Amino acid sequence: MGLKWKQRTAGVFLVMALFWSHAAATYAQEKQDIPPEQLPIEERDQGDSFIENLGELPGDILTLPFTLLFKGLGHGAEFIDYNGVVLRVTDWLTSDDEKTKLRPLFTPPAGIGFTFKQNDLFKEGMKFRATASVGRKTRRWLYAGIRDETFFVPKLGFEVTATHKRLPDEDFFGIGNDSGSEFKTNYLHRENSAKFELISPRFGQSLFAAGFTYSVIDVLPGRDRDSVTLDSLFSPSELPGFFGADMWSFKIRFYRDTRPVTGHPTHGSEAFLTYEFSRQRGGNEFAFSKFNIDLYRYINLFYKRTLVLHLNTEITDAPGSKHIPFYRLAGLGGLSSLRGYRPVRFRDKDLILAAIEYRWPVHNMAIAYGFIEEGRVFSDVFEDFTLSDFKYSYGGGLRIRGRDAGLIAIFEIAKSKEQIRFNFGLNTELRRF
Amino acid sequence: MGKIPGTILIFIITITLGLSTGCGTHKQYVRRPLITEENDRQDIPSPEAREISLFQDGIENIFGREIDDYGNLSGHMRKLTNNHKQAKNTNAFDEVPNSSWFTNRHHLQPMSLEALKRGPNQGDGPDPDGALTITGAKVEGVSPGFRIKDSKGITYFVKFDIKGFPQLNTAAEVVSSKFVYACGYNVPENYLSTLDPEKLQIGEGVTISDKWGRKVPMTLKFVKQILNRVQANPDGTYRIVASRRLSGKPLGPFRYVGRRKDDPNDRVNHNHRRELRGYRAIAAWLNNFDTKANNTLDMFVNENGKHFVKHYILDFATSLGSGGYGKASPSRGIRGTLDLAHVFKKTVTLGLYVEPWEKKPGIITPAVGYFDSDLFDPGSYAFIVPNPAFQRITELDGFWGAKIVMSFTDEQIRAIVNTGNYANLEDGEYIARTLMERRDKTGRYWFSKINPLDKFIISQNADHSITVAFVDLAVTAGFAKDESSSYRHKLLQAEKELNDWQIVKASNQITLDSTTLAKATTDILTVQIETRHNYNNKWSKYVKVHFYNPGENTAAAELVAIQRRN
């Protein structure tokens, strides 16, 4: 009677626990007498033992957040699946005959948007492409074009395009290979242009084109609050094209593409040769000619491990006392050249760029790559050429491709002396004809 | 040692001891009738039909269950102590009782060539002379098809060959379903046939889901749209596989994990069913790499006056050299959808590591697709999405599956493959030869994991000695030489040894002498046998054969149970 109620309660529980465990052990022993495989299945104990459940408990607790996450993802996927969201969206973006497609798009210069493709527009072979993308600070990039390679005769067609660009935070660091990052200024580039070209496909893989472009370009104060505007470091007299200009351009292009597929070509090449002559309309300040060679060569090293060699050179020349607007100078930096630098980080009349990229498949839908690239701009490549002071960047990334081998997305990290850049692109190849 | 690590250590020791003592618990076998039927065909009300989302199933199987397994301490302990959770529906002979899931067929009672070629088919397929009425269609996806009703009123699901790959899909569907049927599973009746588009007519009121998911009337335009995407014969007809509609009410797919809660007959977790675990060996053999839930179907059937759920395996277009919508990739069976470890390995080695499948040609022939035996590894075969039942496979389950695979002779394999009607005989021969080679690899792999003695027969001799006859599956398959095979055995009574090891060579039976048998005090005895083959020259894991020893009684000696060491 001297025991306190707590001790008595504990004693009762202890006796009950002993009784229960004895009963459980006896029952278990009886069930163990006959091996389960000799019992009808409905009489077998299908549950896990106490020890088994105990062993699963800590893991269950530890993995609970992940389990819930994937359960949630699974249910989300179930909702999307049952409601046919993916199917409907994909089908909605693709016509019955698959001639019309609408796809999302992202590139750093253009921003996020959509690209629209229509094949056989008014007649078989006539293609229509349109892109509309927007970004921060009222960034806009609108583009529409029609192309028919056999419009006039089987080997002669046309391409007509119209573009509107409003790029509110373009960087300008001055002209020359030595332009320092401390001279970073910012301007708004607004351009409306229209192009008409005669095009002539040759041998199935090559194309000649010649035509005119008319463009109206305005240069305005930039919208990037973190850097100074163009006029705070440069004056109109020392920077040609300070206010923009209206220009006529005559362009001759040759393009040859021997790649078997676009997403991860393992052999073949792509060559762009362009000659352009531009003259100001409504003024005599600007006139220039530009010659550009852009070559990509894909070499299959072994089992789809591919070496991509990229060579780009551009030479710009202004006749007599004419000038070249600064925004039409050759530029280095950005997604297609010196990826570790800001877009168009270096500007001058001429440029040379060489890059080596090694690509290797890591999954049937992903290709990893590493690259190193070197380039520099020159005021006159023939007079000033030197192998010194080339800028370089290096990095690597992942190219995600679709079932039809077309490129879907790029995730990339690139390093230069000035910065580390993370680049991302979505459906970047879709904009092209 | 701090408090927390000490607690964890005690916890781990508890679990380990708990699991290992559970493993060592002695089971007393008794004379009981062998369980040959699972009582899972009792009359029940119809469960609800359900669908399983392809994406949800994929995400849960690729990520969810992997994470679950990482945190499963008792699972890790079981691996460490080699005390794997065994299948829960096997009988005392380590076989699977017949059930609504499985029927023991070829491996226990060899089927005739005719029966193997006929497979599950009860008739002749769609009536070729009468009109075929379209009652539905599948236009979405890359593998289009129709639902048709023939002149006899029988409904079939029609699938075609993908453009550029004549016979590939249709042959794979027919051939693999016959193999799987002979293995013991429920599969639909699949018939190879020819479809003449002139005989197609659209049924009254037939609708089809358009791209927006809306039901719209089926039109000739849709029919042409589908036929334009598939392989036509030179005469304008189409080679098809017509899958007869299963009888009963469709209830949707079954999962390879858990149970169907609204089916009282469904008592065993599916991932603990031997026939689903062991199907891994069979599916790998057939290169049936896509075994997701949506390639199965539960049907509420009425058989012998009882209504119950019957479980079917469907869709073998992803088998042999067929990838479902064209040829299979050489990476099938080697890499799953998301093998992150391998992606990492390939990334960090900068592509210098070339996988063997990358060196293979992409295709054998258009009718074969891609199908090989030299890269086939039965142990590491990877399915496109991890299958939760396959992930629980133990050596015993694999051995059981391999026994079924090995039960097909060269002649039988050729006979079944020929039902695929390959236009080029060499294509059929290639498929058959590859299946034979893969069969042998399957047998070699799983037979090396387990003592490959089977088909035990116990008999008592006149002097009251007992003869235990058996078949050494490794010898009969030709993996081991009979003359260099040895067997050692000892007699046990309730785990107590009654004699020392006795060794016999090049024999398919052992004899337990009456003197040793006389030492026993019970009539249920055990002979433990280990095997040594020339290919590894070491004693295998044991197989224990529990038998009834009649002694002086007039009753016959009797096999009671077979217990294999995992």
Features of the shown structure:
heterodimer, A: 433 residues, alpha+beta, Porin, 2 domains, 17-stranded mixed sheet, two-stranded antiparallel sheet, 19 strands, 17% helix, elongated, B: 566 residues, Immunoglobulin-like, six-stranded mixed sheet, six-stranded antiparallel sheet, 14 helices, 20% strand
In a few lines, what is going on in this structure?
With 433 residues, chain A is an alpha+beta fold. Chain A contains 4 helices and 19 strands.
Give a verbal description of the structure:
The complex is a heterodimer of chains A (433) and B (566). Helices cover 17% and strands 49% of the residues of chain A. Chain A has helices at 5-32, 50-82, 85-92, 381-384, and strands at residues 100-107, 111-118, 126-135, 139-153, 156-172, 185-202, 206-221, 228-229, 244-257, 268-280, 287-302, 305-317, 330-332, 346-348, 350-363, 366-378, 391-401, 407-416, 420-426. Chain A has a 17-stranded mixed β-sheet that branches. The mean pLDDT of chain A is 86. By secondary structure, chain B is of the alpha+beta class. Chain B is built from 14 helices and 20 strands. Chain B has helices spanning 3-24, 54-70, 73-80, 113-118, 168-183, 220-227, 274-286, 340-348, 388-391, 395-406, 410-418, 425-447, 473-476, 514-518, and strands spanning 132-138, 145-149, 155-160, 190-195, 200-202, 207-209, 215-217, 238-244, 249-252, 296-303, 306-313, 453-460, 466-472, 486-493, 496-497, 502-505, 509-512, 524-532, 543-548, 558-564. In chain B, helix 10 packs antiparallel against helix 12 (425-447). The radius of gyration of chain B is 26 Å and the shape is globular. The two termini of chain B are 36 Å apart.
